[in-house]
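Bench notes, bay 3.
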Amino acid sequence: MSPGLGRLDVLVLLLYCATLGAIGWWAARAKAKTTDDYFLAGRSIPWMVTTASFLATCISALTFVGTPAEGYGADFRYMFSNVGDIAAALFVAGVLLPFYQRHKVTSIYEAVERKMGRTTRLACSGYFILSRTLASTVRIVAIAKVLEVVSGGALAFPLCVVATVGAILLYTTAGGGRAIAWTDLMQFCLLIGGAIVALFYIAAHVPGGFPAIVDAGRRAVRPDGSVYNKFNFLELLKPANLGLFALLAVWGFFNSSAAYGTDQDMVQRLLACNDERKARWSLALSGLVSIPISGLFLFIGVSLYAYSRAHPELIAGMTDNDHVFPRFILTAMPHGLRGLLLAAVASAAMGSSDSALASLATAFTVDFYKPYWGAGKSEAELVKSSKRFFVGFGALFVVFALLMRDLDNLLWLAFRMVAYTYGPLLGATLVATLTNWKVDGRKVLGLMLSCTALTFTLAMTAKWRVDHHVASSFWTQLHATYWRLYVVFGALAVPAGCWILRES
């Protein structure tokens, strides 16, 4: 099989891009008269489309590239964070989402202001903008790496970054929230369909098919020669591992509660739904569906492990597990299917990045620009400014992605980036949602910044000690495993500090 892209692959990709453009053109025909129309499609999106859009936002190129890499190089342990995901989805659907819906907000941080003041609102919005910009840039890096590898180096990494962001801007800037919701529906179907096609194609080329894949996963060999079972879920339920299982479940709950309930990127999909009650069901359903989706991509990784044992040329010279799935697409899949899989990877990146751009533009427009520089401007003028902010954040994505080119292990890197900000953001939101405490906004901001500074300092210290081989077991475990507690710490420390500092 020749590497690189053939004419049939290019045709598939052009058809994919043309479909995106057509949906964006169709969505742009409904002229947005207000920022609510532009960002939330006038709250007119059907609930099934909302569900697909929300899932497309959750599933990114990190899932398509990083999760198979996790299944290939490790095991199914990553799935145990989904135990917390389900609980988080139910919590947000029952508590946080109704809070935002009652206040009829465009930016969820408007609701925070109504309970805790403008300073807290700006702090939460600023935290979101910082964490979402960095985390979404990692997704852009992931898709650009895939494009670079699958094209056989014909497309340079910088060109891949610019092309990806440019394509997203073409349909999002014109159509706003309506275009994003409907393109997300198409992209969700494409990425799940592409993953299933890839799985069956891999199985067809592993001697013995699916039974052989399962057998290889049960008798996997680590680099040090030890044998382990990639599917052994019960391993984490042994007494010696219950602490790790509890950590993954607790981290999954707090991390997903922050993502689903305090991240404008996620909540914006749900606020655009035309039925508030069904929007809550969409969120609960998404939490359940995340388990089989994670299992699908992890099993692709195990299948690639089995394939590599029969075809060792796949991994010859490979130094980064993130490359295993792109390599397979590039060297083993036939033309046509190669283009389909590349379109699926692109849809995974675009389905999360387009909503990220929309939410960043929403937060900046509604929380910062409108109250200050845009005070007194008409809604039509604000919509025009919002489109400029789309382009501005797209340019930031390009710059940051080029700076992050050499970063590896993208799946966990994305989680680590938000570990310092998600906790304080969730903590402040919980205070606004669940209490009637009166706390000065500057004190809340101070608590949030203190938590971020402390956890970031701990993380950098642990990394330095590990890199320089002077780490004790505490610092090694903190760097490898217990960094997940940063989110939990921030989510609990900010409410505790607010309780102490509340006005009587």
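Next record in the batch:
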Amino acid sequence: MTRRLVSLAIGVLPVAFLCFSALFPVLALLQAGWSTAVAGLLSDPAIQWRLFWSAAQALLTCMVVLLLGIPVGWFMARHEFAGRSMLLRVMMLPFVLPTLVAGMGILALFGSGGLAGSTLEETPWLLLYGNVFYNLPLVLRAGIEGFGRVPETSLMAARTLGASRFAAFWRIEWPLARPWFLAALCMVFLYCFSGFGLALLLGGYRYATVEVEIYRMVAYELNLGDASVLAMAAMGGALLVALVHGRLEKSGARPISGKPAPRVPVRSLAGRLMGVGVMLILMVFLLAPLLAVLWRAVASDAWSVWLEEDTRLALFNTFRFTLFTLTGVLLIGVCHALAARHTVLLRGFALLPVVISPVCVAFGLLLLYPSLSASLVVLVSGYVLLAYPFVARGLSASLDSLPAQLPNASRSLGAGPLATFYRVVLPLVAPSLRRGLAFAAATAVGEFAVTLFLSRPEWLTLSTLIYQRLGRAGQSNIAAASCLSGGLLLAALLAFILIEWPDHGKENRA
């Protein structure tokens, strides 16, 4: 009983933070939306197109990443080859890449004068390619995890009974991996439907999403009522998908019976040809934009932009905002994870920042706290809200898998709760905590939507500076934006090293 009370007391901090930065702003959006003629706005053909396109591009992205993710995930789950462990790590790189840097890489490939030799600007394919680049790793990881959990005995029994390889896949492997894919596709839909940075940079006016339209209504028209209605509609759709995701994630987490099928070396000609196809998919959809960013940055002659006063200010602000964010993420994320062990409702609240898009977060904070709209506290709160689920969810999973006898033995030897946590629990969950903080740092470095809404001119960051350069005419500004994007990419690579380097050389079991 005492432990439960302590956990509830610890949970007061994350609950208060969620109320301040998420729940109350959402209520402010609802209140503002009720004062607007909802039916009249949603019957506007332009708004209907925004809603339709937002859902359509998310669904199309889900279809593409599923078609690519099934064969690539199956191949990597079933085969052992040189460089597999490193390839698994490289696949995670888009997760730590700021959206503006990803957009710059895609424009360097398929924009005007792009390296690919053909432009996709003012077409829907530019945004769809960006969505695939950003979300394919999520589906690949789910596929590797799902196919990697198929019991060896089930496959052997199917082959013994005369089933072909395709029949074994369709009747044994795919049903077991399907919940993992579906859960990942729900997250892909959420990220694409609520995406802002890529849609703003790649969608243009014709193919802008609902989130971009909300930003335009607030920033250029000061139309808060209509923007509130659109934000409500976007959050309602995202909430439904998040509920489906929670159910699918639970079904995918069921334990398997039997030892997973082992990976086999690639020896046959068919296996080698499939391996070449896998490498081509990863090169075209994952590595090409990264290499394009580096190429444009190296080939540019605008490196002096790093010596300009605006750049120095952006570097300073990016560093300090990231430091403030990590401090808040560490405090709130750890408290959330500890309290969520005994409170199912609080565990579910960790998904709240995923359901509420960055634009809705910033807009809600702007409506609820107008007097604090230029306050550093509100800005950092938006950063922390978007970043702390990486710590809270990862740490919760590690605490769930922690053997209960270890902290019990520590307490039976006379150690208090704080000593037990510091000497026993913390060393065991440190890898998850480190990964969560690294992802949170990458989120803070590349955060864009919250900064556009809530920042002041003197709070310029690297991401907003790149956007400003792209909005100015002249080749010199494009070259400067390319150099700045290369610097942000290097920062993302540093975060990537912090995430993966301590595990270097150990085989990834996923």
